[in-house]
Amino acid sequence: MTVVTDAPEVSGDDEDGARPPRSRWYSSLFVQLLVAIVAGIVVGWLWPGVGADLKPLADGFIKLIKMVIAPIVFCTVVLGIAHVGDMRSVGRIGVKALIYFEAVTTFALLFGLLVGNLVKPGSGFDIDAQTLATGADQLAKKTGDGELPHTVEFLLNIIPASVISAFAENQLLQVLFFAVLFGLALAKFRERVPTMIPQAIDQIGQIFFVIIGWIMRLAPLGAFGAMAYIIGQYGLSSLGSYGKLIACCYLAAVLFLLVLAAIVRVFAGVNPWKLLRYIKDELFLALGTASTEVVLPRIMTKLTDAGCSRACTGLVIPTGYSFNLDGATLYLSICVLFLAQALGVDLSVGEQITALLVLMLTSKGMAGVPGSSFLALSATISAIGHGSIPVAAVAVLLGADRIMDSMRVSVNLLGNCVATLVVANWEGQLDKSRMHRVLDGDVPAKSMPG
C-alpha cells in the first residue's frame, strides 16, 4: 500500500541517483510540534484563562484523527491477513502478542511497586481532611459515575452488536475483531474472489492515508491547544504540590524505557536510539496532545515501513492500545503506594500482591473509559480492604493526574512499538534487512510493504 506522508523521515537517492532536495528546517513536523508545545506552555502560564479556553483546538484535532482510525485499521488488517493467507499464522500472532502484553504489563506493575517502595513518594504528603470529605463527589464528577467493565463483560464487548455499530461508535477492538474475520474469509476464498476486491480495499486505504496527511498539517495547532489547556487549567503550581510523586513517576518511566530498550535490542535486534529517532514526530505529537490515538495511523505506517508485516502491525498495535498500557500500569502501581504512604499506612506484602492482582485485571479494560485511572485505583483500594485508606482518597490525585499524561502516553506508545517489533521477529515476519536500512536512513519511508 502506498501512502502519502507529509515529510519523509529518512533520505535516500531517487531513481536517477540524485539525492532529493532537503526540506527546510521549519517544515519539519518535529520542529513545528516543539514550537507549538513551548508556545502552549507559555500561553497557559502567562494567561491561564486564555489557555484553558483553547481546549477545543486539541479536541477538534483528536476528533479528526479518530474519524479515520477505524477504516484505516480495517483496511490494514484485512490486507495483511489476506496477504498471509494462513489462519494458524494469524492465531499465533494474536497469542504471542497477548503473552507478551501480559508479561510486560505485569513486570511494569511490579516495577512500579518496587520504585514506590524505594522512593516513598507519599511520605510527608499532608492530605487535607476536607479533600477526603468531598472526594467521593469529585470522583463521581470525574468518572461520570461510570465503572470499569468486568473481565467477562470486557471480553464480550469485543464482539460488536453489528458491523455498522462497531464503526459508528469507533470501537477499535470491535473493528479489529471484524477485520480479522473478514481478512480470514477473504484469504480463504482468494482463489474465487475477484482481485478487484483486495485492490479496492487497498485503494480505499490509500484514500484514508491521504486524509490523514491533510489532518496532520493541523497537528501543531492541536498540540498548542492541548498544552495551553493543561497548563492554564491545572497550573504549574501542581508541579510543586505533587513534586515528589511526579518525580517518582517520571523516574520510573525513564528506568522502564531502558528496560524496553533492552527488550527491543535483545529480542528484535533493533537499535533503540535509532527507533526513537525514527518515531520522534509521533512521540512528540502524543506528548503534546496527551493522546496515543492521534498517532495510531502514522505509527502503523512507520512500523510497516520498517519491515514489520502488515498482518503483525495491524493486529498488535490496535490490540496493544487496550492490553499493553505499560505507562498506565506503571503509574497506577505507584499511586496505590502513594495514597497509602500519604495516609501513613504501611501496606503489607500480601496487600501489595492483592493490589497487583486487581490491577492486572482492571488495567485491561481502561481504554476508552472516562476517568479510567481513578476507577481502577478505586477498585484496587476497595479490594485491599484497608480501613485506613478510604476510596475517596483517590480524589487527592485529581490535581496531578493530568500532569502525568505525558509520562503515560510516551511509555504506552514506545511499549506498543517494541511489542510489534518483538512479536514480528518472534513470528518471522520482520524484514531485518529493510528495518536496518530504514532506521539508518538509507530507504525513504514512503511505502507499506506486504
UniProtKB/TrEMBL annotation:
Gene3D superfamilies to which the protein is assigned, alphabetical: Sodium:dicarboxylate symporter
Family annotation (InterPro entries): Na-dicarboxylate_symporter, Na-dicarboxylate_symporter_CS, Na:dicarbo_symporter_sf
Pfam families per record: SDF
Main location: membrane
A GO molecular function held by the record: fumarate transmembrane transporter activity
GO biological process: L-aspartate transmembrane transport
PROSITE patterns reported in the protein's UniProt record: NA_DICARBOXYL_SYMP_2
Swiss-Prot/TrEMBL keywords: Cell membrane, Membrane, Symport, Transmembrane, Transmembrane helix, Transport
Membrane topology: Multi-pass membrane protein
Organism domain of life: Bacteria
Subcellular location: Cell membrane
Membrane-spanning ranges: 29-47, 67-85, 97-119, 171-187, 207-231, 243-268, 330-362, 374-398
One of the record's GO cellular component terms: plasma membrane
PANTHER family listed in its UniProt record: AEROBIC C4-DICARBOXYLATE TRANSPORT PROTEIN, PROTON/GLUTAMATE-ASPARTATE SYMPORTER
Protein name as catalogued: Aerobic C4-dicarboxylate transport protein
Naturally occurring in which organism (per UniProt): Nocardia mexicana
